[in-house]
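Let us begin with a simple case.
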Amino acid sequence: MHSHDTQIAALQGIHGVIYVPLLYQSPNFYTASGITPITSYTDGMIIDVSLNQTSGSGGVTININSIGTKSLLKYLTAGTTTNLAANDLILNKDYLFRYSFSAGAFIWINPTSGDQTNIAGTSGNFIKINTDNTPIDSGQSQSNFSASGIFAFSGDNLASPNTTTGAQNDVVITGLNVFGWNGAGASSINGFGGGTQGRILYVLNESSTYQLTLNNENTGSASTNRLRTPDQGANIIGPRQSAQLIYDSTDSRWLVQDEGTYRSNPAMNGSVSAGTAGQLPSAGDHVHPTDTSLMTIVVPGTTGNVLTSNGSAWTSAAPAGGGNWTSDANTWTYSSADAPTFVISVNADMTAILTAGCRIKLTQTTVKYFIVTAVGAFSGGATLITVYGGTDYTLANAAITSPNYSYAKAPTGFPLSPAKWTVQVTDSSSRNQSTPTQNVWYNLGTTACQITIPIGIWRVEYFVTLDVATSSTSVVNMYSTLSTGNSTESDTDLTEFVYQAVTIATTGLTTISRVYAAKILSLASKTLYYLNGKTNQTTASVIAFANNTGQMTINAICAYL
């Protein structure tokens, strides 16, 4: 006897709880037969039910021992009853119900659905999890959130901002989450007081003319109040701009999270001329690098264009590749094929550029598209890139020209139909095993019922019709599984079953049922999967995949779409 059966038996003996396994008959209607000692529905009767199929919407009704059909209801927090909602009852889980003579229905005892939760507290407050894992009132009002759903801090000095000019040390920010500044001249801040672990402070420059500078590790402020900027240089907040700071008690520093509208570290940024210091460059401004190496920047005002400098002059042009594609100047060559995946060799270190899921566009007489499924280590002067070409594209052992890559989901021209990026196997013939041995897995149909899945991440699913016949007069069952072995079960998440039990006299039973299973799989290498079947009965005369009554389909859909 299973442990939960033992517990149920104990409850029946002590509390009068009767275990009722319910079998699905039609949408939201379940029955149970041979349940002792139930001969009628009595007021206060408690039953422990389990379903062989999760309940749907529109209420649930049951009929025990053909006594009559009754509804399963639950209480709302207002004390009134209502029908069960979709997924209130999950298959193979136990739920307690008490029969109410006045309601003429079974009422759910201590349900766990969301509309049964009643937490004492103040209306409009947030809920938090207590140390005993129960939900309680946090004491924090939702007023800290704006109507648009964007977090809005309540502590600020924007109505009367700081106006100090020049250097400021150990600035007091008691009670503030937003620190506003609007001076009549430029100012710099060397530190803020009041730092505690995780405290967030937004610094807003409300001036329309002057810049506010956050200085890195300036000794004008106490060590525990100092600032640390991303590039360890002065962080300049331009007019009408802002920066975010977070306090780290381990380093006893305010960490500036934003790089500011202009960073002053010349080793990293060069200098600005013909523009306004502290403001973003605009069309016509000149940005000079500190050396003569080629650099590329994007300038607001030239929509989508890129300015490129050779150290003495600038040119403006659309980004290379276009349509969210980035062209690559390295040499790409065919390396190997294991259809539907292929390997490309690139004569450069691509490990920091390409990742699994990147889109690839290249030309071999015609334009072809691929998805990167693996990036190898840079070795011997080359990086090996594994790509998947879906149903439409193969990589030929020929020259590759115009290689492009993209991080976008849908760069121009890339086909998005999942059907084009799916490995699929179908079968429409009956595949059976006569006199199957109990609990032995069979690869019914052999090669017709198996799939080879390439390297990468895949959403794997299958549909199959299970058919089993037995000489048993009471129970019939069959299982299916998608496994890496042809006589094993390698993943229980990909296992499904059909089960039927009757209490009338028969000379044998047959059941046919369609099942479905799915799971995300991450494969480091090409892998063969087998669709196997079994029964755990000794009386089964035949088990089969009845693909002639409903087509078997196994899909491996690329999860990078």
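The second case is a distinct protein. As before, the sequence precedes its structure tokens.
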Amino acid sequence: MKKYLIIIILIAILFRTVNLEFIPHWDWDEGENLNIAWNLANGRMQDFAISYPFVPHPPLYFMILALSLKLFGNLLIVERFLTVLFSLITVVFVYLIGKEAYSEKLGLIASFLYAIHPTAIYFSRFGFSNNLVALLNIVALYFLILYLKNLRILYILLSGFFVGLITITEYSGLFTLMGFGFVLLMYDRKRLWVLVIPTVIFGGYVTSMLLLMKDAFIHDLMYTILGGTKTSTSLTLKDQGVRIFGLIYILTIYYFRKHIRGIFKTIVNSVISDAPVFYFFISVIIFVPPSDGWFFTYPDYFWLGIIGIFLFNNDTIKRVVSIFFTASFMYIIVNNRMDHMPIPLYPFFALGLSVLITRTYETTKEYLDRLLKTKLDIKKISLISFIVVFYPIAITFYWDISLFFLGKNLLTEPISDNIQVTKYVNDNSNENDVIITYSFLSHILKAKNVILLQSVAYDGKSISYYPADLPKERFFFNASYRNSKFIILSNGTVGWIKNETSTKDIVSDIENWPRIDIGRLALYKNPNID
């Protein structure tokens, strides 16, 4: 069986590394992460022009990335290879969980599904910290399952340790910590003391930030908690409403859990009895052509795996897996995010879908046998059942090749434009100049660089992710657009800042600056700085 796992890993490597440098397009968050990590690698807690107290993103991902950049160079491709590595290790642990929870055969199916899942592949190719969360989440779950099966204390200690690592990677780890505690409360209360391990790890992060950057940490933490990442008050209120609704939803589900369990069980039994019909009609979603917009917005065929999570034979494992899944899922609901936030859910989808399709395959054979009243022999019924249940896998392979080998339906990064514009800026600036740039171009520029959002905040105006009251002492240099020698914007960003209240004065000013268009990028030269 291990040779099949090796083949699956090779397939995962192939789909995750071909054309990695320019498919998908370079994302803003990747550039932010790269800048923070490179500064950390050089002993600075800094995000472009401002001090960074690791809020809203705790430091573990940046620490690992910083080490990688030191070893292999300050390049975005290094960051992408790192998150691909996280995803490949996740493939292995999905197999291990499937093996422990069900069977080795199911473990192989689950790891294969995760290896070819287009959305999982797409986001693993981005340098997002959520890929590390997905790995740590599934590793913590694996050791927890081992503990519940074998009761070896080493396993529960390891599970608690990895839960702690999640808390210092993203704040979603706090939801996982609550789920972990809930499992202990249900199955082994005498081990509740293990909660000390993740609590100490998270507490160490908080304590260190309070000692190193107390005011900045408290300021940014409160700004994040209060929904300050949005500029519109109505949007902030909406987000807060969704968060409150999410918490009420959790409490309601818990209070009526016994009644809901009975209703849910009736629905599940109904779905299982007619699984082929439900599966056939829902699985046609696989024909929808994936794209960047689709990946960042909508669920896909693999979300059917949610049903499969509740079909595990072992009740204990079913509950534990569902609790860990629900913890991650509720974090998404509370934050009202459907972009790259669901990345930690994809391993669960693979596990659940592997159970669902194997159960559906067997049910389909029985269903067809009853429907056709033995007019066909068992081999033909098995073949038809296999095609009905597994045809989405063939379609998935087509999408993987089309998307990641051929670049169809995806925005690809125009690297030649990036090189051309940064070369021009480097040739006409020095290390003391200030450049307003796209986040993912900063590692190519030799001058001091800052992103437009920070420049707006420097001038005392509120904009996405930055408040108007950001103290001037948080800035390492004058980040005002008036002090920048060049401003690099995309054509899309130019259109966006024209509609933003806080950037209208910048637009009216730089429209009079000399402009050079290089592909999709617009380069503005400050006429007041030689």
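The chain has 22 helices and seven strands. Residues 230-238 have pLDDT under 50 and may be disordered.
Keep these points in mind for the review questions at the end of the chapter.
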